[in-house]
Automatic annotation (TrEMBL):
<dbReference type="GO" id="GO:0006412">
    <property type="term" value="P:translation"/>
</dbReference>
<dbReference type="InterPro" id="IPR019189">
    <property type="entry name" value="Ribosomal_mL41"/>
</dbReference>
<dbReference type="GO" id="GO:0005762">
    <property type="term" value="C:mitochondrial large ribosomal subunit"/>
</dbReference>
<comment type="similarity">
    <text>Belongs to the mitochondrion-specific ribosomal protein mL41 family.</text>
</comment>
<dbReference type="Pfam" id="PF09809">
    <property type="entry name" value="MRP-L27"/>
</dbReference>
<keyword id="KW-0687">Ribonucleoprotein</keyword>
<keyword id="KW-0689">Ribosomal protein</keyword>
<protein>
    <recommendedName>
        <fullName>39S ribosomal protein L41-A, mitochondrial</fullName>
    </recommendedName>
</protein>
<dbReference type="GO" id="GO:0003735">
    <property type="term" value="F:structural constituent of ribosome"/>
</dbReference>
<keyword id="KW-0496">Mitochondrion</keyword>
<keyword id="KW-0809">Transit peptide</keyword>
Amino acid sequence: MPLGLILSSIGRSMRRKRTSSLNILSSKRAPRDYYKGKNCKPTGFHTRKGGYVMVDAKLPRFVVPDLTDFKLAVPTNRKSQTYLNRSYETIPNLAKKS
């Protein structure tokens, strides 16, 4: 085996690998027609003429329990409640520099 062939094969194996293959694939680093989406389920379908039809069966349904007799309240600070109850004129202007 010639020495040049051996050296070229060693050089090919020792060259740096591309680090771009390790990056996260986004639409900026991908081909023009690449669309990744945002992990949302479709709520309808596209028509032939470019429209979009919403399908009622695909829309999300949220089941909210009845909270009329719910005993817990929203946690707020007492200072913030007194600050919000003051009138607009008494609130100090924080944007002014003294």
